[in-house]
TrEMBL record:
It comes from Merismopedia glauca CCAP 1448/3. Gene3D superfamilies: 3.40.630.30. It comes from the Bacteria. The keyword NAD does not apply. Keywords: Transferase. The lineage of its organism: Bacteria, Bacillati, Cyanobacteriota, Cyanophyceae, Synechococcales. One of its GO terms (molecular function) is acyltransferase activity, transferring groups other than amino-acyl groups. This is GNAT family N-acetyltransferase. It holds the Pfam family Acetyltransf_10. InterPro entries: Acyl_CoA_acyltransferase, GNAT_dom, N-acetyltrans/Recomb-assoc. The keyword Transferase applies. Residues 1-153 form the N-acetyltransferase domain.
Amino acid sequence: MIIRLFQESDAEQIALLFHQTVREINIRDYTSNQVKAWAPDNIYFTNWAKVCANKFTYVAENEGVIAGFGQLEGNGHIDCFYCHKDYQRMGIGKQIYQAIETKASQLKLHRLYVEASITAKPFFSHLGFQTVQQQEVECRGETFINYAMEKQL
C-alpha cells in the first residue's frame, strides 16, 4: 500500500469508490433515500478530477487499486474521506490521515476540522477529534445528521 497525492487518472476510480462506499457502507447509518441523495446514480458526471486537484488529495493505492482517499484544504478542513468498501478496517484510513496531518504540520496549521458522518464519527474520535456539535445538513432534498469535529495539533 502506498499513500500518494492524487493524479488525474485516479478520478474515475475515486468516483466509483465514493459511490460504492456511500451506498454499501453508509447505508448502515442512513436511509436508502439519504444515501441515494448523497451518492446519486449520476455521480459519475461530477468532475472528480477538478474536485480532487484543487485540494491536497491523498490516495491509498494497492497494486493499481485505489483503496481510499482523503482531502485536506489549506485552512485545515478535511473534506472527502472514504475507504473502499472492500478495504474497511485495515488501517488504510489511518495511513491517509497520517499523510494529511503531516501536510497540516508543514502548512503550520494548528487545527483540523471535519463534518463526520454517523459512520465516520468513531474513526475520527479514535484519531483524537472532539465533537463540537451534532448538526443537520441538507443534500438534494434529504436531511442528514453529521458531526462537526475538530482536533488541535
